């Protein structure tokens, strides 16, 4: 009998029963803390402003979304393909045709952003003059590798969000 009374009046059980009885009030209290601008929770010497915390989290989510957008659209789709081709093991053949002026501008833009770099004594002019494999004239720069890694992470996160929606 004594063991049963100890179980019935143990602190964890009292807390659980109290939460069950006052569930609605506790939910309203947390809701007020989360959605109010001035609500604070004080636990001993620790005081937390929950409303501001929720607002800060929403601001950070908006900033992350903005950064993800910028990373995803920093280079054009074609420039992104050029970076991927330069980092791959496969050849990256070039032949002069009607799209050459566009390709030249894309290479110059990637070089201006320090995402690619010409090999010693090589670059856009040598590529346009001699043709062949773009990799014989350019290589991906460290910033280009870093950008591709960042872009991969952003693309993975975007795919996860779309799967969850």
Would you write up a description of this structure?
This protein is mainly alpha-helical and 165 residues long. It has two domains: 2-71, no CATH class; 77-164, Orthogonal Bundle (Arc Repressor Mutant, subunit A). 65% of the residues lie in helices and 10% in strands. The protein has eight helices and six strands, in the order H-H-H-E-E-H-H-E-H-E-H-E-E-H. It has helices spanning 2-8, 11-21, 23-35, 50-72, 77-87, 100-112, 124-130, 142-164, and strands spanning 41-43, 46-48, 93-94, 116-118, 132-133, 138-140. The strands form three sheets. The chain has a two-stranded antiparallel ribbon. Strands 3-5 form a two-stranded antiparallel sheet. Helix 3 packs across helix 4 (50-72). The longest helix is centred in the middle third of the chain and has 23 residues, at 50-72. The chain is rod-shaped, with a radius of gyration of 29 Å. The two termini are 54 Å apart.
Summarize the structure.
The protein has helices spanning 2-8, 11-21, 23-35, 50-72, 77-87, 100-112, 124-130, 142-164; strands spanning 41-43, 46-48, 93-94, 116-118, 132-133, 138-140.
